[in-house]
Design goal:
Elements lengths: L8 E3 L17 E10 L9 E7 L2 E7 L6 E2 L5 H6 L3 H26 L8 E10 L5 E9 L2 E7 L4 E3 L6 H8 L2 H25 L1 H4 L6 E8 L6 E10 L5 E6 L2 E2 L4 E3 L3 E2 L5 E9 L7 E6 L7 E4 L10 H14 L15 E3 L7
Antiparallel strand pairs: 1-19, 2-3, 2-6, 3-4, 4-5, 6-7, 7-8, 8-9, 10-11, 11-16, 12-13, 12-17, 14-16, 15-16, 17-18
C-alpha cells in the first residue's frame, strides 16, 4: 500500500504590479511551512494545523477548530488587498489538506500494523535565500516523530530511511512531473513568494537592531581560574559572529557557546564563555560582528569583582538551554501552495 499523494497544485503565475527588486539586504531569509495532523488529539489540540513562517515570524495559521486560514501579522493584510479571493482560496485548500491528512494517517497506521492510539503525520517544506545570494530548499515528511521520506531536489528522487517508506519512495520516484514541480517550487516559486512577503513586512523583517554586549566574570574558588561570559542581546537579524580572540586570533579552547535564543520582542540573545588563567587576562577579547554595527566590537576582559563560584552562571546556562530546547518532528505529506491548479490524478494502493 503506497502513501497517497495529495492533489498536486501546479503554479499559475499571476502578474503582479509590485516590483520587488533587491529587498533582502545582507542577511539570510527563509520561508517555511509546517503541517501536523494528530489521530487522537487531547487537551484541546486540533486534529490538524498548518502554520507558515518568514524567518522566525509566524505569518499565517489554520487549524481544524477555526477551519479558516488567517493572517498572524498585519503586513499579510496587503496580500488580501491585492487578491480579495486569497484568504477564501487558502482556506479551501487547507480544508482539503486536513481531509487528506486524516485519510493518510489511517493508511500509515495500517501499514505499520498499529492499533488505535495517538499518531502524528507531518510535512515540513520551505526555501532560503542566503546572504551570499545562494538559494536552498527542502521538503520532508515524517510519521510519529521519525523521518519518513525526504525529497532530493538535485536528483529529483526521494530518500526513504525507513524500509516501509520505500513503498512510497518507489511510487513517488515514478511521478516525474510532480517531482519537477517540487524542484521548481523550491528553487523559484517559493523564493518569489519569500521576496514578496519580505517586501510587505520590510519594517520588521528587514530592520536591523544592533546588539548590546555585556561582560561578567567570576573567580573559581577551587583552582583560582577565571570564568568570563560575553552576553550579546537585543539584536536582529539573527546572524551574528561572536567569538573569543586571543592575541588577535580566534580562540576555541576552553570556550562554551550558548543557544541562539529569540526574545519576546523578536530580537535575539546569545552568549559565549571562556575559562582562563588570570595571568593571561589581557590577551583575550570578546569579538562581535553584526549587520547592526558599523564596526566590529572588541571588549576586553575585566578583573572579577568577587570570588564566588560560577555555579550560578552554570545554572543560568542550563536553565536557558532547557527553555529553548524544542522539537519539530519528522514531517510528512503533502503540498499546498499559493496560486496553483490541480493535477487530475492521484495515486493510492
Amino acid at each position: 500500500m503506497a502513501l497517497r499523494p495529495a492533489p498536486l497544485w501546479l503554479p499559475v503565475m499571476v502578474a503582479v504590479s509590485l516590483q520587488w527588486g533587491s529587498c533582502l539586504g545582507a542577511s539570510s531569509h527563509s520561508m517555511k511551512y509546517f503541517y501536523t495532523s494528530i489521530s487522537e488529539p487531547s487537551q484541546g489540540l486540533p486534529h490538524f494545523a498548518s502554520v507558515g513562517y518568514v524567518d522566525d515570524q509566524l505569518f499565517i495559521h489554520y487549524d481544524s477548530h477555526s477551519r479558516k486560514m488567517k493572517p498572524r501579522v498585519s503586513w499579510m493584510e496587503e496580500v488580501g488587498k491585492e487578491d480579495p479571493q486569497y484568504w477564501e482560496a487558502e482556506t479551501q485548500r487547507a480544508r482539503g489538506n486536513e481531509d487528506w491528512f486524516r485519510e493518510n494517517l489511517e493508511i500509515l497506521r495500517s501499514r505499520y500494523n498499529q492499533s488505535e492510539g495517538r499518531h502524528t503525520l507531518q510535512v515540513m517544506y520551505g526555501c532560503e535565500l542566503r546572504r551570499d545570494g545562494g538559494k536552498g530548499g527542502f521538503w520532508q515528511y515524517g510519521y510519529d516523530g521519525r523521518t519518513y521520506i525526504t525529497f532530493d531536489k538535485e536528483t529529483l528522487a526521494w530518500v526513504a530511511p525507513d524500509p516501509l517508506a520505500q513503498i512510497t519512495q518507489r511510487e513517488w520516484d515514478g511521478l516525474t512531473v510532480r517531482n519537477q514541480y517540487f524542484k521548481a517550487y523550491l528553487e523559484e516559486i517559493c523564493i518569489e513568494w519569500l521576496e514578496k512577503h519580505l517586501s510587505y513586512g520590510n519594517e520588521t523583517l528587514l530592520r536591523t537592531e544592533p546588539p548590546v554586549v555585556t561582560m561578567s566574570s567570576r573567580t573559581e574558588v577551587e583552582d583560582g581560574m577565571e570564568t568570563h561570559v560575553c552576553r550579546v542581546h537585543g539584536f536582529y537579524p539573527r546572524e551574528i559572529d561572536a567569538s573569543w580572540m586571543r592575541d588577535g586570533d580566534v580562540w576555541l579552547q576552553d570556550t562554551f557557546h550558548g543557544f541562539l535564543t529569540p526574545n519576546a520582542d523578536g530580537t535575539y540573545y546569545y552568549w559565549i564563555s571562556l575559562q582562563i588563567d588570570p595571568k593571561e587576562r589581557g590577551r583575550y577579547r570578546c569579538h562581535v560582528e553584526h549587520d547592526g554595527l558599523q564596526d566590529p566590537l572588541d571588549l576586553e576582559l575585566k578583573e572579577p569583582t568577587d570570588s564566588k563560584s560560577n555555579l550560578g552562571l552554570i545554572i543560568g546556562f542550563v536553565v536557558a538551554a532547557l527553555v529553548v530546547v524544542g522539537v519539530i518532528v519528522g514531517i510528512v505529506v503533502f503540498i499546498k501552495f499559493r496560486k496553483m491548479e490541480q493535477e487530475p490524478s492521484s495515486i493510492k494502493c
